[in-house]
Specification:
Elements lengths: L1 H7 L10 E4 L5 H10 L7 E4 L20 E8 L11 H17 L4 E3 L3 E4 L2 E12 L5 E11 L18 H5 L5 H18 L4 H11 L6 E6 L2 E10 L5 E5 L4 E4 L5 E4 L5
Helix pairs in contact: 1-5, 3-5, 3-6
Bound molecules: biotin.
């Protein structure tokens, strides 16, 4: 697996000597966070065929069976303050659209903030976790990505069968998981070089990819639901929503989940 991924990586990718593959791991994010605390360098990549304790946003578990997906985490050390990284999740999502376009020949959309979707089905989830230095500066960002590559509809658990999809279900032909993995690493490496210096260009691409914009949405906070229309993405990656009352608000991903008026997307 690793040899094939390395052979499909861009020859100029500077991270090629620091990519680690596991047949089975607890969670690539958890293991990489520990490696980050122990001093692993910028550009360290872990990916696995299977995870036993994969997890996603809001403490949810992320099922990670063997043979059908790519479960990957990438370590960045951007040397900046946390407020300069508010757009990181958006940048990762657009980079994953690039990776899928290269390896599966279609470009998915993004359901704000960071679910990659195609025809109302989620193909990919992203979980970004930050660590801090005593000074308050960012020590590391661990970017975790899970992509459904080869599943058929019946492979998904009944409770997500109507909203989950895979690259193979869109492309209707076999998916080369090693090309997907190589494309993910190249896309994140490319994004990381523009992350701090080219923020507005990253957000412009994100706005083009984001299918939530222009949609009627419901905004779910801890114990309330409000309805409105998604108007724009601000310079921090927050979603600008106009509520039915006419009031507008910039909502951040940490505090809400959103849904379309008629379901998940
Ligand atoms: C979500 O949809 O809520 C995010 C899912 C993120 C899953 C990936 S798989 C690789 C990495 N390791 C984990 O435990 N989680 C992320």
């Amino acid at each position: 697996m690793l040899e094939k991924v390395l052979s499909q990586l861009s020859p100029s990718n500077p991270w090629k000597h620091n990519i680690h593959y596991y047949d089975c791991i607890t969670s690539t994010n958890d293991v990489l966070k520990q490696m980050a605390k122990d001093g692993a360098p910028h550009g360290t990549v872990l990916f696995a065929d299977r995870q036993t304790l994969g997890h996603g946003r809001l403490g949810r578990s992320f099922l990670s069976p063997s043979g059908v997906g790519i479960y990957m985490s990438i370590l960045l050390r951007p040397e900046c303050r946390p407020e300069e990284l508010m757009h990181l999740t958006c940048a990762v999502a657009s980079a994953m659209c690039d990776a899928i376009e290269r390896s599966a020949s279609f470009r998915p959309g993004i359901k704000w903030t960071n679910d990659l979707v195609y025809k109302k089905r989620k193909l990919c989830g992203i979980l970004t976790e930050l660590g801090f230095l005593p000074s308050g500066m960012v020590d590391y960002a661990v970017i975790g990505i899970g992509i459904n590559c080869c599943q058929k509809p019946d492979d998904f658990a009944p409770e997500i069968r109507d909203i989950a999809g895979s690259l193979a279900m869109v492309q209707h032909s076999p998916i080369d998981r090693t090309l997907v993995a190589a494309s993910m690493i190249d896309a994140i490496e490319n994004m990381s070089r523009n992350l701090l210096g080219n923020k507005e260009a990253i957000l412009q691409q994100y706005r083009r990819d984001c299918i939530t914009l222009g949609q009627d949405v419901s905004i779910h906070k801890a114990d309330s639901v409000r309805y409105g229309r998604a108007l724009d993405i601000d310079s921090n990656g927050a979603l600008i929503v106009q509520y039915i009352s006419g009031e507008t608000e910039a909502v951040s991903s940490g505090e809400v989940s959103i849904r379309g008026m008629y379901g998940y997307v």
